[in-house]
Amino acid sequence: MFPTFGTWVNASLILLGSWIGLHLGKRLPHSVRSGFLTAVATFTLILGVKLIYENTGDTIKVFLSLLVGSVLGHLLGLEERLQRFTESDLYKGFLSASLLFTVGPMTFLGCLLEATKGDSSLLLSKGLMDGLSSVMLASTFGRSVIFSAFFVLVYQGLLTLIFYTFANSIPQENIKASLFIGGGMLLILSLKLFGLLDQIKLLNLLPAMIFSLLV
Hints:
Number of helices: 10
Distance between the termini: 30 Å
Oligomer: single chain
Largest sheet: none
Structural class: mainly alpha
Number of strands: 0
C-alpha cells in the first residue's frame, strides 16, 4: 500500500458519514443533537487534558512554537479567510470537525506507523471513529463538516509524507511538544463548544503544531 492509504480511507469515511448525517439531520430531534454536542464537548475536554498531562516536556519549545505558529497563523489570516466563506454555524462545524479529526495521538501515531512500517491499521481504526462522529456532527452543524474531510486529507497526508521522509530525524521531544499543543487546542475547542472563549481564533494556532515538529 502507498504511504497515505490510511488517510485516503479516513477522509472517504468522513465524507460518507457526513452525507449520512445530512440526510438524517432533519429526522433527529433537537434534544438528541444538543446531547451529542455536549458529549463531544465533554470528550474533547477530557482528551485535551489527557494530552497535556501525558506530553509535558520542554516548555520553552512549546512556547516558541505557539508564538511563531500563532503569529504565522494570524499573518496568514487562516481563521479570517475561512469566516469570509462560511456562516457562523457552518464555520463552527468545520473547525470543530477538523480539529477533532486531526488533533490527538491517533493522528500522529497513525501517520508515523504508516510512514515507517507501512501499517495503516491505526489510521483505518481512526477512520471508522471519525466516520461515526461525522454522522452526528453533520446532523448538528450541516454541510460544513464535509469540508473537514479535505482538511484531514491534506493535513494527515502532509504529516505522513513528512514522517516518511524525515522519520529518523524527528526528535521524540518535538512529537511530545506538538501533542502538548494539540491538547491545549482541544481544551480551548471544548470551551468554545460550550459557548465560551468565542473570541479566541483557534484556527490561527494550527501552524504551531506543525512548527513544533520541525524545530
